[in-house]
């Protein structure tokens, strides 16, 4: 059985919160910094492509391609977070992924809105 970490993503940076929502419950948006993105372009590995071609004849998951896509998404996310951090943000709101063909590979872009958020304290 494969290690789930090889096939999963997720955030591991506590100083920059990334969410797919427009706001964060219990927090106030103090300042919107603007659009940020992280981009990576990956070429196809000929061995993986051949294996995927053979696997597609029998059906089932293309694990080599899945692993490559997960690694690419994580790399795009790391770049997104670094851009938000370097511009003074501690959050990225409305984060999305976009994947498209780029020649002999795939372009993976993570994008969203960098912001400074603070916890709402006290009262109602």
From TrEMBL:
It comes from Streptacidiphilus cavernicola. It comes from the Bacteria. InterPro entries: UPF0145_dom_sf, UPF0145_YbjQ-like. PANTHER family: UPF0145 PROTEIN SCO3412 (PTHR34068:SF2), UPF0145 PROTEIN YBJQ (PTHR34068). Belongs to the UPF0145 family. This is UPF0145 protein ACEZDE_03535. Pfam families: YbjQ_1.
